[in-house]
Amino acid sequence: AQSVTQLGSHVSVSEGALVLLRCNYSSSVPPYLFWYVQYPNQGLQLLLKYTTGATLVKGINGFEAEFKKSETSFHLTKPSAHMSDAAEYFCAVSDSYGNKLVFGAGTILRVKS
Amino acid sequence: GAGVSQSPSNKVTEKGKDVELRCDPISGHTALYWYRQSLGQGLEFLIYFQGNSAPDKSGLPSDRFSAERTGGSVSTLTIQRTQQEDSAVYLCASSLVVAGVSEQYFGPGTRLTVT
């Protein structure tokens, strides 16, 4: 069975500061890993994904994540937070092909001016 | 182009009534998924359709839940004899395979409230 743990249900950063959202996964097979963002009253939007190959993955809106197999982690970062980044972020894992996503509990990012 | 659409956006129903939720996937996407997002349980997979294959129903929480996909396009999620614990946002996604991996595109969801 696969699972995802997101550390911190709420994260608050100042505008311009580094954003770090933590995700650890458990998987018995090589995982495919995803980060999604959800703005209020909207669906989920894919930020980035890791399948195979390069472990540092770049996504939209300046976000990136690094797959670390030894740490079973896939943390999301952005060098400089914008007010528009305020949203809920979900890390997800799938066993293959990106089907049947298993989501973490989500992290709400607040950006202070 | 048009994204995944869902209707209705909001549904309030009385306990014990049946409800139908509709999903229109992105044209050309062969796979369709239903998820449920609730305060207590987070985001949960419900069911997955891929082409003409038998659907993967492993996430449906009870036999009151069913779904069908007609003509490989539109899908309907039906909840019979609704209970208060069914209150949640029901999200639909469709997927396109990119480099061997399905990228799921989500609709805005249907917020179901059972009173």
Helix-and-strand structural type of chain B = mainly beta
- Tally of strands of chain B: 10
Strand % of chain A is over 45%
For the report, how would you describe the main beta sheet of chain B?
Answer: 6 strands, mixed
Estimated structural class of chain A: mainly beta
Low-confidence sequence ranges of chain B:
none
Largest binding interface between chains: A-B, 22 and 28 residues
Helix content of chain B: under 10%
Distance between the termini of chain A: 41 Å
Query: Which whole number gives the mean pLDDT of chain B?
Result: 92
Structure description:
Chain A is mostly beta strands and 113 residues long. Chain A has no helices and eleven strands. Chain A has strands at residues 3-7, 10-14, 19-26, 32-38, 44-50, 56-58, 64-68, 73-78, 87-94, 102-103, 107-112. In chain A, the strands form two sheets. In chain A, strands 2, 4, 5, 9, 10 and 11 form a six-stranded mixed beta sheet that branches. A five-stranded antiparallel beta sheet of chain A has the order 1-3-8-7-6, with no helix packed on it. The termini of chain A are far apart. In chain A, 38% of the residues are buried. Chain B has strands at 5-7, 10-13, 19-24, 31-38, 42-50, 65-69, 75-79, 88-98, 101-106, 110-114. Chain B has 115 residues and is mostly beta strands. Chain B is globular. Chain B contains no helices and ten strands. In chain B, a hairpin with a 2-residue loop joins strand 8 (88-98) and strand 9 (101-106). Helices cover 0% and strands 54% of the residues of chain B. The model of chain B has no long low-confidence stretch (mean pLDDT 92). The termini of chain B are far apart. Classes of the chains: A mainly beta (113), B mainly beta (115). Chain A binds chain B through residues 32, 36, 41-46, 49, 51, 90, 92, 97-106, and chain B through 4, 31, 33, 35, 42-45, 48, 50, 56, 58-59, 91, 93, 95, 97, 99-109.
